Amino acid sequence: MFNCCLAQLSTFSVEQAVTMDTKVGSLKVPPASLLVFPILFIIILTPLYDHLIIPFARKATKTEMGISHLQRIGNWVGTIYHCNGNRELWLKSSRKRVATHSGLLDSNDPLPITFF
């Protein structure tokens, strides 16, 4: 299931970034390099989960695992994916609004909106 989310994120993010301004200061970030950001978040958040949330859950539930695998998937990961989905919908609508106001709806020029 997680790979399905990452596959969708990787293709859609690159396609969106192609239509946006990918400059950070004087550096122009290639749209394909956006795939690094979700992986970095996973690398950062996994140890935090293991060292902060799991010990707290072990104390609260008095079990070795802390919470079951099903609870792990359903509780906080589902909430994070839901919030991310809402953010994607907001970005999609804001990109269309910016394109309409800028007169770039059918243009190949990048929109005046940053990819971040």
Automatic annotation (TrEMBL):
Main location: membrane
Location(s), subcellular: Membrane
Alphabetical list of Gene3D superfamilies matching this protein: MFS general substrate transporter like domains
Pfam family, one: PTR2
Keyword Transferase carried by entry: no
Bilayer-crossing regions: 32-49
Protein keywords: Membrane, Transmembrane, Transmembrane helix
GO cellular component, one term: membrane
Entry membrane topology: Multi-pass membrane protein
UniProt-listed InterPro entries: MFS_trans_sf (IPR036259), POT_fam (IPR000109)
A Gene Ontology molecular function term of the record: transmembrane transporter activity
Family stated for the protein in its record: Belongs to the major facilitator superfamily. Proton-dependent oligopeptide transporter (POT/PTR) (TC 2.A.17) family.
Record-given protein name: Uncharacterized protein
Protein's organism: Coptis chinensis
